[in-house]
Amino acid sequence: MKFALSTNWCNRRLESGEEIADTALALGFDELELGFHTTEAQVAGFKARLDRIRVGSIHAFCPVPISAPQGYPELYALASLDEDARALARFHVTRNVAFASEMGARTVVLHAGRVPFATFFNRGFSSATLRQALEDAKGDLADRRYAKLLAKARTTRRERGLRYLEVFKAELDRLVPVLEKHGVVLALENLPYYEGFPDEEEMTQLAETFKGAPVQAWFDTGHHRVRDRHGWLSAADFQAARQADGRTVFRGMHLNDVVDYHDDHLPPGQGKVDFAALADLARSVEHVVLEPHSGVSETDLAQGLAHVRGLWEGGRQ
């Protein structure tokens, strides 16, 4: 099994693409995922190291667009009801697909967008509202106030999601020929907030609609746990989802350990994600990428890599 390192870990700390690639090799990684903090200046260095470590995937939007003040995975939303916003996102996704092909990468990871569930009478209603209510309930999903808020959010989110789903399908229809031309798969990541699109049910529908097309899901282990701990999963069985031909709906996965309710991006083994239970899923996907936050030390990162190798490859943890 090959393990990749997301360069988001050190894009803002190490200026040279060569140095980032060499560090990943020294830590025992097999591939790179170029993160959304990758700069144009770093690209030449990554190209210079392709004979030593390949780029398996890139995380949109990469490299950071010249017009953007900094890297961010949701600079542009392909899942939007605003036509101009979708056109801008389509332009940059197309650019990223071409860049992935240029780097020899097989996949572009995308945060598709968000479906707001605030109402006219409660404009501040959001994932933050739900998080605070659950915190007040000391994590009790059965708490009466939290359950009431979540039921209200679920109804609005599902209804509005249908509109987003239809316009998003049309955008994917336009992108499929571009993806096929470049031999690249677009992978839609599960997101750690209730507004995140697509949710589990929507992704299942997209997988069926685009069966056989270069469009799949991307599984972030930490995001899944955050959604589970808040009661936001729309299909508890999503991890085991399969397409009609038996293939997993997932193109790859980010290994992101979390404690409970926040998107911590710890190395595997430092949070509460049950990585042992994810062994079958990891073996079924094309990419396995560690995605630690920038403050994680090299020692902790190396230990995290050894931890999952031990769990999934039978070696020492």
Structural write-up:
The chain has an eight-stranded parallel barrel with strand order 1-2-3-4-6-8-9-10, surrounded by five helices. A two-stranded antiparallel sheet has the order 5-7. It has a single domain (4-120, 153-313), classed as TIM Barrel (Alpha-Beta Barrel), CATH 3.20.20. The relative contact order is 0.13. It contains nine helices and ten strands. It is of the alpha/beta class. The mean pLDDT is 93.
CATH topology: TIM Barrel
The CATH C-level class name: Alpha Beta
Question: Element order, helices and strands?
Answer: EHEHEHEEHHEEHEHEHEH
Radius of gyration: 19 Å
CATH superfamily descriptor: Divalent-metal-dependent TIM barrel enzymes
- Mean pLDDT, as a whole number? 93
End-to-end gap: 15 Å
Unreliable stretches (pLDDT < 50, length at least 5) are none
Sequence of strands across the biggest β-sheet: 1-2-3-4-6-8-9-10
- Largest sheet features: 8 strands, parallel, barrel
State the helix count.
9
Strand percent estimate: 5-15%
| Number of domains as seen in the coordinates | 1
- The number of E-state strands comes to 10
Structural class: alpha/beta
In short:
Helix content is 41%, strand content 13%.
Secondary structure blueprint with pairings:
Blueprint: E1 4-6, H1 17-26, E2 31-34, H2 40-48, E3 54-59, H3 83-103, E4 107-110, E5 113-114, H4 127-136, H5 144-182, E6 185-189, E7 196-197, H6 200-209, E8 215-220, H7 221-229, E9 250-255, H8 279-284, E10 287-290, H9 298-313
Parallel strand pairs: 1-2, 1-10, 2-3, 3-4, 4-6, 6-8, 8-9, 9-10
Antiparallel strand pairs: 5-7
Helix pairs in contact: 1-2, 3-5
